[in-house]
Amino acid sequence: MALDTLDYSVLAALALAVLAYLTKGVFWGVGDDGTKVVSDSRDISEVVRDHNKNYVVFYGSQTGTAEDYAHKFAKELKAKYKLNIMVADLADYDFDTLNDLECVVSFFIATYGEGDFPDQSVPFEDHISNLSKGDLSNLKYTLFGLGNSTYEFYNGAAVKADNALKAASATIIGEFGKGDDGAGTLDEDYLAWKEATMDILKSSLNLTESDAKFEASLKITTLDPGEYEDGEVFLGEPDKSYLDKSTNLSLGPFDHAHPYLAPIAHSKELFNSKDRSCIHAEFDLSNTNLRYSTGDHLAVWPSNANEKVEKFLKIVNLWEDKEQVIEVKALDSTVNIPFPSPTTVETVFRHFKEISGPVSRQIVANLKQFAPNEKAQQQCDKLSKDKDLFAKEIHENKYDLSEVLSILSDGATWKLPLEFLIETISPLQPRYYSISSSSLSEKTTIHITAVVEADKFQDRLITGVTTNLLRNIEIDQNKESAKPHLTYDLKGPRNKFSPYKLPVHVRRSTFRLPTSPTAPVIMIGPGTGVAPFRGFVRDRVALAQQGKTFAKMVLLYGCRRSDEDFLYRDEWVEYAKTLGENFEMHSAFSREGAEKVYVQHKLYELKDEIMELIDAGAFIYVCGDAARMARDVNDTLCRIMSEKKGFSTEKAHEILKNFRTLNKYQEDVW
Ligand code: FAD
């Protein structure tokens, strides 16, 4: 059998992936664009010793938030107690010598999926789970978990880590901290834990506290023309390969560190509404070896809107210098450089920093030392020390960083060291979308379905970064007369994002249809929660067209009104024609009748059929809002089981929990 070009590229990508795996990070980290500096050893105690470190902050991060908190913690600990701290990704080290460390370590561990460790930290999980009593008897650690209490296994990974470390006789210093993104208190949970933990560290390690002045870990040098070649300056290219003309950018592997610049071949507005918007976007994979499976997630890397970049650069007095080329170097080889360098000032804040979004109280505390006037200094002091005042004045008003800076200084501009801005402001992270296409019917296209975040609040519009970028693209691509809420540099660096390309990568998920065709399927997905189910149904349509048959599929969908925000309204009718009576769709409209009807109400209405399907071995899938819907659906399923089978509520909950373990009850919620 002859191999075609695609087969060769897949083989090449596989070979690269195997090489990368076998070398375990030793090669891939040493990019000379300096984005990631990795030590040549994976022996943690050797690296700590060689670099004279006396404290290690580890992170296990899925989306970058745990990494960000680990850096914030290390920065403050270093400034306060003059410790020589190393921040390390759990993925970059082996842990055989963990017990040989002569210093305290802090762990920041995110939970992903059903109480799982972040993908890259699974080897760490495996290592600590196989230890015996006494194996870590010298290890002293602090632990902060990042989780979401609306999920079944709240902070599950950090809980597992704590149990395994304790079982191996490690000693925790202070309390195991748990941050709750679901309750929206992650930042305040962290601050409360951090204050208590730093006090305990101070007394138990006998540390002397000094004025927590910012100390840079990076050195930024401005470059004059002549000190750089134009072609080597990063203007928003995701990594070095995008500057190198000889690199074939369509070859993977593509991941968090190396996204694919995917053309959006087609986009359209799905809502029929004056003030709400939902974008369907189709990413073309026909020129790449990037592939996906139905149920996976697409990570979309955004940039910041023109309006936000301008407002920010003006308040920090960098607008005039926005084209200045800068070089970023780490002051010590264990420090990662957060983006490719050399680059320009504007590029940093357009492509790599999260300048919109809520502001942390910690940033305001750190700003005090650079306040442009006494009033601003007092404001920083007052707001950063009073949690309730901060919540009332800043958080509840949904101000972003530019607005906070302006409020603190009464509009006066700030002169903040670039190192401070870069090390304090969180990195701009990709946003994830449940893929709404089927890898069986759309092998080389990924569809996503994204509701645009733009809420009127007082006299301002509170906007999301990525969804407004998608809307700007959709309006531009279809030459619509509608005005976008925000405008973006759609052409991207050196026009490379033109026409309509965005950096993306696929995150594998476990959200999959049952392999057995005889297992019935119950899908509950209101709003954009229907996205993966469109993929599931299209999968089944593709197979039905090949003559395959399946057990029943029931889809429960919900939206406000049938004529306003009913996603893919016309498509479902077509799917039903192919799938026949084995596809049933039930819709709940919350704003059409006198009473609000949601998916959980429909689910209860269908209780006889739902119970029959469960008895026949149905797989249950829930997608969408994690905060309320997923819990209400879970409770309704328990109620149905209790009523139909005479179980107690506890017993029904137990059965559903068991379904989860067996993968018969899966959630894709956010
Ligand atoms: P962001 O910039 O991330 O903003 C988030 C929210 O904060 C917005 O509501 C914004 O208005 C608000 N905000 C902005 N500034 C402030 C401020 N200063 N103070 C307070 N609030 C502020 N979404 C979908 O639409 N479809 C999907 O299929 C989908 N699938 C997902 C799958 C997974 C696994 C996950 C984790 C999430 C999924 N999401 C999905 C959500 C998606 O990832 C994004 O979170 C969402 O689109 C918003 O992204 P954004 O960049 O537009 O908003």
Automatic annotation (TrEMBL):
Q: Where is it localised?
A: Endoplasmic reticulum membrane; Mitochondrion outer membrane; Cell membrane
- Looking at the record, the residues that make up the Flavodoxin-like domain are 55-198
Q: How does it sit in the membrane?
A: Single-pass membrane protein
Q: Which InterPro entries match?
A: CysJ-like_FAD-binding, FAD-bd_FR_type, Flavdoxin-like, Flavodoxin/NO_synth, Flavoprot_Pyr_Nucl_cyt_Rdtase, Flavoprotein-like_sf, FNR_nucleotide-bd, NADPH_Cyt_P450_Rdtase_alpha
Q: What is its EC number?
A: 1.6.2.4
> Mind listing the UniProt keywords for this protein, alphabetically?
Cell membrane, Endoplasmic reticulum, FAD, Flavoprotein, FMN, Lipid biosynthesis, Lipid metabolism, Membrane, Mitochondrion, Mitochondrion outer membrane, NADP, Oxidoreductase, Steroid biosynthesis, Steroid metabolism, Sterol biosynthesis, Sterol metabolism, Transmembrane, Transmembrane helix
Tell me one GO biological process term: ergosterol biosynthetic process
Binding site residues for FMN:
61-66, 110-113, 146-155, 181
The residues the entry assigns to the signal sequence are: none
Keyword Nucleus in record? no
Positions bound to FAD: R431, Y432, Y433, S434, T449, A450, V451, G464, V465, T466, T467, W670
UniProt catalytic activity: 2 oxidized [cytochrome P450] + NADPH = 2 reduced [cytochrome P450] + NADP(+) + H(+)
Q: Which residues bind NADP(+)?
A: R276, T528, S590, R591, K596, V597, Y598, V599, Q600, D632
**Gene3D superfamilies from the UniProt entry:** 3.40.50.360, NADPH-cytochrome p450 Reductase, Chain A, domain 3 (1.20.990.10), Nucleotide-binding domain of ferredoxin-NADP reductase (FNR) module (3.40.50.80), Translation factors (2.40.30.10)
What does the UniProt cofactor note say? Binds 1 FMN per monomer. Binds 1 FAD per monomer.
Q: What does this protein do?
A: This enzyme is required for electron transfer from NADP to cytochrome P450 in microsomes. It can also provide electron transfer to heme oxygenase and cytochrome B5. Involved in ergosterol biosynthesis.
Q: What is this protein called?
A: NADPH--cytochrome P450 reductase
Organism, by scientific name, is Cyberlindnera jadinii (strain ATCC 18201 / CBS 1600 / BCRC 20928 / JCM 3617 / NBRC 0987 / NRRL Y-1542)
